[in-house]
Amino acid sequence: AAKSAWCPACGVAALTPGTQRDALLALAKQSILAKLRLPARPNIPHPPSRGALLTALRRMRAQRSDAAAFPGMLRDGPAPARSPAVGLQEYEILSFAESESSTSHSVHLHFRFSQEVAGNTEILRATLYLFWASPSPGAQPITVRLLQPDPAGPNMTVTSETRLEVQRSGWTTLDVGPAVRSLFGQEIPRLTVELEVPEDWGSPLPSHHSDSHWPFVVTQARARTPHRVHRR
Amino acid sequence: GVDCGGDSPMCCRQEFFVDFKEIGWEDWIIQPEGYHMNYCSGLCPLHMAGIPGLAASFHTAVLNRIKAASAAAAVDSCCVPTQRRPLSLLYYDRDSNIVKTDIPDMIVDSCGCT
User: Fold this and answer.
1) Helix (H, G, I), strand (E, B), or coil: what is residue B51?
2) Confidence band (pLDDT; 50, 70, 90) for A145?
3) Bridge partners of A199?
4) Which pick of A40, B10, B30, B110 has the fewest CB atoms within 10 Å?
């Protein structure tokens, strides 16, 4: 009601347009951060490269259409909620690996998850995407181990080990739902994966972090249903 | 619903667009470029109660008679959203993960009187 001296609905003096706009912008910031359960806007230490992001989003979309075409293909956890329960917010989280080389033919990958999402959601599905640039023909034995901190000491314990036979270059996926689900209860939710390739293969990772074939994990989660008290 | 635009003080939907670049959020929100934080404002006198919520029907006729008969004790109703839709966001969290989510009921598409 900028044209009249007062707000027709609430009967108080109308704000000046500038003050009203500032108030609305502040309300928009507050509302979005509250709905995302963020205390403040995040600062991005090192965003992934555009190439890696686009490749990962493309893989996610391809995976989703595969899942729709072959519903039995991905085996993990409760059935995905195609039609989310009324009002329950869903998340898809794309985490890129931070690498830590251990030997010439094995590497540790770390995937971190933010506490805001980890603390308030339940995992529906989590998939690890790995790209293999196989240097030589024939089946190459690859070992993928999921590790978690050993509560008794500084070492890591193996929670699961998978042996793959890579025939040619390309992407493979691995179901890491249970491992990520067990993480989401921890204070610092971090998934550690060890990749081990044959000696003559060299490093199991692309040469650079910004490579569009960098490993990533896609996690689908849903906000926990708030605790409701039913009065009978 | 009615979009605000003319001089009428009646209940309508006021469009308001928040440009993420303007508030310095374009670095951590990848998509979309802004948020339509539309809101409802304006008068809902008694004869507008339930408009445009109720369809033209016998109930409307009876309701209008009751309202007309009780005009002396007129109480306004409220101008509220009648249709809303989610805000889809693709953003970086503080661990540089990319998160996609749909926040329900964040965009007001139309307003009406209770």
Assistant:
1) coil
2) very high
3) none
4) A40
